[in-house]
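Two proteins follow. First one:
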Amino acid sequence: MSFDFQPFTVFAPAKINLFLHITGRRPDGYHRLESLVEFADPHSKACDNLHFAPAEKFSLKIAGKFSAALKDTDPQHNLVTRAAKILCGDLPPVAVTLEKNLPVAAGIGGGSADAAACLRALSQITGKNAAEHDLLTLGADLPACLESRPCLARGIGEDICPVTLPRYALLLVHPDVPVPTPEVFKTYAAEQQVFSNENIYFQSLNFEELLHLLGKSRNDLQNAAMRICPEISDVLNALQKEKGCLLPRMSGSGATCFGIFDGRENAGIALANLQKTYPAWWTVAAKGF
């Protein structure tokens, strides 16, 4: 079987947990959560890019700034390849190039975003769709990444409710230190005794309402992640010192942090300042530019 299509590119935007509350733990050990999930703007520097072209057989090539972090990983185990297998059964005759612009093990769902982008692209090429229960084997972030729009996520991430959020300026900053998610949850479980129970529901927020909500919320994994990676505190402090930063917070299980700004101008100044002062950090404009 072959597919006749013109080569094309799809974006895999970073997932950003504006808040993340741990609400319980299932008997199988998975933690239940409640999170407001946002995504970087397409075409921003906070996206992986996946390029698709016809081929005689399936292949996955990984390039880009953070490709070295995956060089020792068997391509058969990459979430892009696994997504292709789940959707198509046999791997389709398509050449995929993953341009890895997002840091790995960074709390911004890069692998899940890549898998979701692959599923969207191959669904377009083949006309196939995967069963929801199969998709969850690709990770808890996969349902939200398939939506790739603001949503409230619950359960272990499979219960998704799309919401409407305003436009605003947001920077992402990563201290160039990988933080494995299992270690963060293990540290959290060893320290945390009381789960969150906010039960937040809404359909739409303006900017003031969003800031008010975020001011009352938090990332329950942040303290545990900082024990593993103290550099997270350095990033949060650096963001807080920038003019116009209204909220600095860690995303997901870290170590990426975000800063929400009062406008594009101050966010742009902060971007330049942070890139100059901390050249080893990954600092990008993710929204509002």
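Second one, unrelated to the first:
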Amino acid sequence: MSKILVTGGAGFIGSHIVDHFISKGDEVVVFDNLSSGNEENINSDAWFFSGDVRDKDALDVAMEGVDYVFHEAALVSVPKSFENPAECLNINVEGTRNVFESALKNNVKKVVIASSAAVYGDNPNLPLKENEDLKPMSPYAESKLKDEELAKEYSSKSLPVVALRYFNVYGPRQDPSSPYSGVISIFMDKVSKGEDIVIFGDGLQTRDFINVKDVVKANVLALELESGEYNVATGTEVTIKELAEKVIEKAGSNSKIIFKEARQGDIRKSIANIDKISSFGFDPSKKLDLSDI
């Protein structure tokens, strides 16, 4: 039995990671300040530690005796990162540095961090490989790139760190009312209320959508991977317009699609090359599954 710490363990992705390790009989600590997480997401068999990754002392206490850390806590909203870039860097970069420092101090065996496809920027060289030039287009993306640089630094200090570059994650527990939420849950919520779907831009922008269940598999696999960066995606792309049409069709809704001006920092096309992580046995479902959202 291992002792696992999940920062952001009350959030969308973090809570699914918690559930997996609880189901395997491990001891799990959820470290979350509930600023965007939901207490209802916390597994009743996990230990809950109310804390903020900017608080070094709290992390040191929560990290005691921990074998593995999954660092999911972050400010994840691109628009909010433009509104308050200093806060974004403080939470995402200094918070990550604190996690690494505490893990090093407590002899943690490995840290797995949530990075993002946002680090690639609007790169036309598709599908995107891990060794592409990185051109972040938002303070959020810049913060994730800085996290990866910190990961390299701490890996050289004998703390193994794996950075998983999540593409567009979807699944249960994504809160459609949250500004942090993914486009699928927002669209599903709109059609359930009979409201029109708003697409920013012409709808031909593409995304590589991956189910949160597969993201959990990637995190579990990361415990066996060498330090470095790995794309976590399906290697398939869907246009936002096609997605909206699928959601409307599934719901049998009369909702219409409304197009508005593209937003600052939005990437035009995104699809991953997943050969690197797939070579270690990662095999995600390529079918867009809207059944359990």
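SUMMARY FIELD: The two ends are 32 Å apart (CA to CA). The domain at 169-207+236-271 is CATH 3.90.25.10 (UDP-galactose 4-epimerase; domain 1).
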